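Subject: two folds for Thursday's group meeting

Dear M.,

Sorry for the delay on this. The cluster queue was jammed most of the week, so I only got both jobs back this morning. I'm pasting them in the order they finished. Each block is the input sequence followed by the predicted structure tokens. Could you check whether the formatting survives your parser before we put anything on slides? The first protein is the one we discussed after the seminar.
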Amino acid sequence: MASHLKTRSVVRFSGPDTLKFLQGLITNDVRRFGDSVGDEKSSLVTPNVPASSVRSLYAAMLNPQGRFLYDLFLYEAPRVEERIDPSGSGPGSGRVGDDDGDGVVLLADVDSSVLDELMDTFKK
């Protein structure tokens, strides 16, 4: 189940250097998102497919002096079989924001009130 919250925003990170970029900026180890998960795993529980949980982590961004700036939750973008099409009647197509399939696609759940500041920090 999902709900749109006005106080939260989502930032998408994708590309071949996504993990390297984030590894140096946040307080948690994002390299685990680079570990491949077997194709036989699914978060949808069925008798024929073993269940797996969605990989996520909580992290913070600090300034160079180590003071807290922002916090965020990072999630892997859903796989094809985990998405639902707009009608809700079946699986969707492609990963969220997967333009060329190159690299990892991560979604960051952040506080909307600091989104602009956070984006400026990522662009520096």
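Second protein, same layout:
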Amino acid sequence: MNLIIFILVFIVSAAIVNGADAGVDENTIYALKNLNNYEKNVKDMREVVKNLQDEVLYEKSQAKDLDDHNFLESMIEMNHQIEELKFYNGFTDVRGPGIMLRVSDSTSDDENLDIMDKIVHDVDITVLLNDLKSAGAEAIDVNGKRIVNISEVVCAGPVLKINGEAVPAPFVIRAVGDQEKLYNVVTEEGTYAYDLKNKYGMEVAAIMSYNLVIPKFYGINSENKFAQSAE
């Protein structure tokens, strides 16, 4: 395009210098002007296209940054939800006010009591745990074993098995929550703990604490011999 314009300009210039017609009429000069305008329009269009391309690249960059930002926010929210699930399901250590309850076998000399009534059984611990939960306990452990929804307390001869591990008496139950409510549910007359102490002579003692640390749940120490995942 530039070469054509150069030739036409050369011809017109030669005609003017030589004072001759040189075969260049007004139509040729008009065409030359149109070519100049056309070249300018092409240049302008190229500039417009370049600007549009730059804008597209910028928008793509912004979209990528937005996607990265949204992805990061999603990951942060997901991590927050995971931490909440871990907290509420006992997979984190917790700290707070509450009570400590010590329970051990009866030392009563009452001959009217059966020997089995003087021993702390799994049902006794289970009832005490349920009473504490009903009083709003937010975290509980027994002899350092965290109690969660899938925890088991079962008799195993002279000891109890908690989360699959043997735990001997005395049993120290720690519960985090409203101190007064927790204390009352294991000391007031008519409660299960009160009866263990006053009817069966078991050692049941509760104290308040302002800074209990309850360890996280480490799992159940057991192995399935027959059950397998169906997934």
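Two things I noticed about the second structure. The first strand starts at residue 94 and ends at 104. Residues 146 and 217 are 5 Å apart (CA to CA).

Cheers,
T.
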